[in-house]
Amino acid sequence: MLEALKKEVYDANMQLPKLDLVTFTWGNVSGIDREKGLFVIKPSGVDYDQLTPADMVVVNLKGEVVEGKLNPSSDTPTHTVLYNAFPDIGGIVHTHSPWAVSFASAEMDIPNLNTTAADTFYGDIPVSEALTKAQIETAYEDETGNAIVKTFADRGIDHNAVPAVLVAQHGPFAWGATPAKAVYNAKVMEVVAEIDYHALTLSHRDSHVPQYLLDKHYYRKHGKNAYYGQNNPKSNAHK
Amino acid sequence: MLEALKKEVYDANMQLPKLDLVTFTWGNVSGIDREKGLFVIKPSGVDYDQLTPADMVVVNLKGEVVEGKLNPSSDTPTHTVLYNAFPDIGGIVHTHSPWAVSFASAEMDIPNLNTTAADTFYGDIPVSEALTKAQIETAYEDETGNAIVKTFADRGIDHNAVPAVLVAQHGPFAWGATPAKAVYNAKVMEVVAEIDYHALTLSHRDSHVPQYLLDKHYYRKHGKNAYYGQNNPKSNAHK
Amino acid sequence: MLEALKKEVYDANMQLPKLDLVTFTWGNVSGIDREKGLFVIKPSGVDYDQLTPADMVVVNLKGEVVEGKLNPSSDTPTHTVLYNAFPDIGGIVHTHSPWAVSFASAEMDIPNLNTTAADTFYGDIPVSEALTKAQIETAYEDETGNAIVKTFADRGIDHNAVPAVLVAQHGPFAWGATPAKAVYNAKVMEVVAEIDYHALTLSHRDSHVPQYLLDKHYYRKHGKNAYYGQNNPKSNAHK
Amino acid sequence: MLEALKKEVYDANMQLPKLDLVTFTWGNVSGIDREKGLFVIKPSGVDYDQLTPADMVVVNLKGEVVEGKLNPSSDTPTHTVLYNAFPDIGGIVHTHSPWAVSFASAEMDIPNLNTTAADTFYGDIPVSEALTKAQIETAYEDETGNAIVKTFADRGIDHNAVPAVLVAQHGPFAWGATPAKAVYNAKVMEVVAEIDYHALTLSHRDSHVPQYLLDKHYYRKHGKNAYYGQNNPKSNAHK
């Protein structure tokens, strides 16, 4: 069942240790088959060096396990909420990568201070509000998803333009068109958090990129006028 | 004598360089056979790449060497005190991992600011009081153990719920049900110290997790209602 | 066409991940054949582990692709401006190395505080002024090159004596007599930025090297009285 | 000539990249045969992966090359001064390791804040005064050695008890009974500088170890009552 997607999700999970985004088993990637309405996710608490594509668990959009011998990631309800709320995303990743968790602990957005951020994120990476006692004690992982969705709605942020978030006191989630792109976005977030920490503690001032630089860099890589890389609409290779 | 335990303790010691927790020989792991009242510990000052399971030294709960050609870790008396005071622990580790030593040098607790900490530690990781001149000059390594035990008693901290400590001006000790779990806890402490340093210097405010988030994350992984991973009471895999 | 130069530029590009200067595809090196007036540059957005010398793209000094199946780096116009403005350089590199980007985000020069800097850079590594809205919206990559050239002209800096720059809000460019020397200079800039960050946040004071120490270290390695290494005019090996 | 010493010095040099103490060729180790009054040193500016034992250069205590096809390290006069001034040392190392250079740039001692420092250094690692214009312009490398010697004399520091120094605005030198021990001391200095930076920026207060803790840890590893390791006078292995 969904063997190609399982392999794709497995490969994306295996990128996490390679990209220095996880310690022990603290991360998970999922990917969705939108036609079937099923997603595939890493099992909970399994070491990366023991993981196989066949270990991946298949879950429906109600968050119910459809296939798999292992317990799915404990964050599965969060993934379920996000797939339902963001109908155009194809993959989701959650990690405890340390620079992002530092910003989440400080309850600070990761600000967009440079073209490294602007190339991938069309604005700051927002931090959610902290979950309330009631939210945490009832359906914690669902409410984590709801807090993310609310953050984007309340602040009017397009989740495709800023495909990442920090959950306050917790850590980062990222998503993308595919599981691999979600992992890419998670790595960019981590690198940007590291750069921003040093920039902020050097300058102690607001050094956000201006809107026109954000536009320039973001749209060099995204949308109908993109010209970075080999496969974008206006790249020379396609003239 | 205790060959299986020697192998287990050896394996746990070999995790220290792999997890970037030691420089040179600055770390040691021990593990105990509670029925026999004997523990096994790394020899003092031996390079990790020359270590073998047979080099492990067997010590009784008075701190006396029972078997072994090599000198046991100079921290053996500290391990002895801890095994006697904490009768339910199975393994102990001491390192000079740099982020933890930075907090120990600053004589600051490693605060519980995020779910990465809360998943493993049910509260802040305490720093002991500095040892007095008399303590240091009489039985230094015993008094180090006593200072740890006193810290948990004075502050009313459950050593199973917070299985790690900083000795002021010195560095971290961690423990657990097994030598491998002690090493796991030592690594989590180091990662949390790194994250906390950056969070504290970003926000310069108290950003402790609230009690209900601490409860939620700690008990997701511990106790009779744990549901993280494949082997916990309420994990789906066991339904 | 230019096969030896393609190999040289390929090799210099492959140094970038080895020296920890790039994440993903975020870097590019070029090298020029001054007699032919043609330069060779990395294609845009190609993974380093899939790159081959044959993928390198040949470009003329108007910035036009002369040979190559792939789209050249999107930064090609910046390289073109620099080769035209600095007629004695043989290679250029651009990366998003994190310490340098932190200084670029803070819009701070990387100051010359120690002999590690003075050995390679005869003064501070300047940060350009931020590009204006008009510059960004018309010919962004050309204007990036123009901003670099203007920085050196306005501040009277010799681009051979300080072979590196930060573009404000963006990141580092470096150059040299060859592609390999450009990459060397880019790595030194990154190391110096890391050292300077910690020195500045430790001392919070101006600790520039004095002119006579700058002279001593720079001219130990450069010019007709250089005596460092095996191939300099006054090295013992050549007596 | 001195083939065994050349191999020993070569091996010690090759530890520098392995211990992350050097970038490119920025480091050198020497070792001395006191009976012959000759020392062996790395050639100047040679890549570590191209170095062989036969490349080592033999120098006498006037700093003159006695054997070797290659130019010796440009820091050879500094080594010469130190071997003459400190007649009991057997090896010297100089690097540009980044944490140590940060303290040298800030012209701050590396303070003794914890047992990691106290195990190896019996006090703070001092920073020299900055060299004067006249010193730099006449015999720079000799004067670097003289500044080190003067620092220990003026401040009454025993160079065997604190076998390392920072030269202001420049970087670290370390020494020891053998080339390997010099490299060991250089690595400890770098680790201590890293730990201290974070401790100082966390606590912003003086957190020096008290004298009695310094005594305890230093003499656990040094002198006639040492009991750490397998070969010390009072280690259990020798009972």
From TrEMBL, chains A, B, C, D:
* The protein's required cofactors: Zn(2+)
**Can you name one GO molecular function term for this protein?**
L-ribulose-phosphate 4-epimerase activity
UniProt catalytic activity: L-ribulose 5-phosphate = D-xylulose 5-phosphate
**Which InterPro entries does the protein's record reference?**
Aldolase_class_II_sugar_metab, Aldolase_II/adducin_N, Aldolase_II/adducin_N_sf
UniProt keywords (A-Z) are: Isomerase, Metal-binding, Zinc
Q: Name one matching Pfam family.
A: Aldolase_II
Q: What is its EC number?
A: 5.1.3.4
Q: Where is the Class II aldolase/adducin N-terminal domain?
A: 7-197
Alphabetical list of NCBIfam families matching this protein: PRK08193.1
- Provide the protein name: L-ribulose-5-phosphate 4-epimerase
The organism is Lacticaseibacillus baoqingensis
